Amino acid sequence: MRTALILLALLALGALPGALLPQRQLNVSKVDDYISQHGWWGKLLDKLQFYDVYSSYWFAAIYLLLMISLVGCLTPRLFDYAKQATQQPVITPRNLARMPHHGTSTVDVAVDDVVEASRKRLRGWRLVVREEDNGVRTVSAERGYLRETGNLLFHFALLGLVVAFAIGKLVGYSGQVAVIANGSQFCNSGLLAYDSFNPGLQVDGTQLDPFCIKVNGFKASYLPDGQADSFDTDLQYQSGDDLKTNTWRPYDLQTNHPLRTAGDRVYLLGHGYAPQFTVTFPNGQTRTKTVQWNPSDLNTMLSSGTTTFDPPDTTDEVQLRKHQIAITGLFAPSAVFDGSLMTSDYPGANNPAVAVQVYEGDLGNNSGFAHNLFTIDQSMVDQGRLVQKAMKNLKLGQEITLDDGTKVKFDKVYEFVGLQVSHDPTQDYVLVFAVLMLVGLMGSLAIKRRRLWLRVTPSSDGTVIEVGGLARTDQAGYGEEFTRLSAELLRVEPMTGKRDT
Prior knowledge:
Layout: H1 2-20, H2 28-47, H3 57-86, E1 101-107, H4 111-121, E2 126-131, E3 137-143, H5 145-171, E4 173-180, E5 184-187, E6 196-199, E7 211-222, E8 228-239, H6 241-245, E9 249-254, E10 259-261, E11 264-280, E12 286-290, E13 294-297, E14 302-309, H7 317-322, E15 324-332, E16 335-338, E17 341-344, E18 353-361, H8 378-382, E19 386-395, E20 399-401, E21 407-423, H9 427-446, E22 450-459, E23 462-471, H10 478-490
Antiparallel strand pairs: 1-23, 2-3, 3-22, 4-6, 4-21, 5-7, 7-8, 8-9, 10-11, 11-12, 11-21, 13-14, 14-15, 15-18, 16-17, 18-19, 20-21, 22-23
């Protein structure tokens, strides 16, 4: 048990870097920034897998050793407990006066009647009546066996919790996705459907539980000072046979009230705004796109982002890279202006506006490298391959006209919701084991293990009753219980002689 406690402490200590340091499973860019900011120290932590704590070899080794230690600790204890549970209470000690709790009396009642009265009073105790020489009879009683039961229940539940948690990390997964609240759909069909995905060690993303979600609308209510009051997402979902019949079922998704379907849970993580732009090219063709922008200030929902367009009817790769368009800047749901400087003073969309810069040229999207959705590739600007063509503040319905006749119009603004899909088939087992741990802990702390012996000896003056008690735990309280019990056991009517305690 000492080894198990040490390993449990090491496991808790090993989990600290996972809470204090950025983790790759959650945010790769933060890990890269942390390493670049801390030089050799950051690289050393990377080699020691401190940015991948829960999938590191050393954390898995501690976890495995803890399970082995618990099994090795609990197995012999279980056999000992089974052996003790079938044994009778121990023989009455020869000298009860040496017990921590002791009392005697003499009564004018037959030995058998005293024993029978004691048996009735000790109903609920595990007891056995034995006979000694010269007509002496003894009663051995013991109570509190459930204390050890609670102790074992706690530790076996802890072992079950550790195993269930480990299995959940192997076969579970979680993913995050942003869905625009204009009837857009998300289907749990594979890795490419997510913006970020955290698979378990045995998950390759090809056999996810199938279901689809359609986000029809989002409503956020705020207090006068701008503090969020409630979030409600109007969505529809389908899973199982509904996918075959194309049946959609409504659901009001709220914070901390996830949608449970197809064995998965869908949580509402956050929300933001997605401005819609329409670009009219010189040949008259138009392209409209709505892309979520990242909230930079959660108090006012001032957001930053980039919306990109490819020119129409262009198959030549060289010409395509020369005429791509990027609209980047800030979006304010409740815009206020200080000259040309725009900001937002409220998170609700009372006066939506954008402060945008329009670039034309090569966005660098075809380089084969990953790009940030919310920013342009600054290296393209530095090389002169992406050139700023205009900069302006726009309200709804306003537009910019570039030198070549291209028009950029700020059409509408939608809200988007950030959803997290979590799959953990062991969550019910984790809950059950956690409850059993609590029940076992309460039982092991509240129940007292105690023993009581009674020796009934016939004599010329009557029947001598001698009572002794011993607490098997260090908890206080048995003295009061023994005093109450002994007073009843020693007082058997009719009473004769003096009581000596």
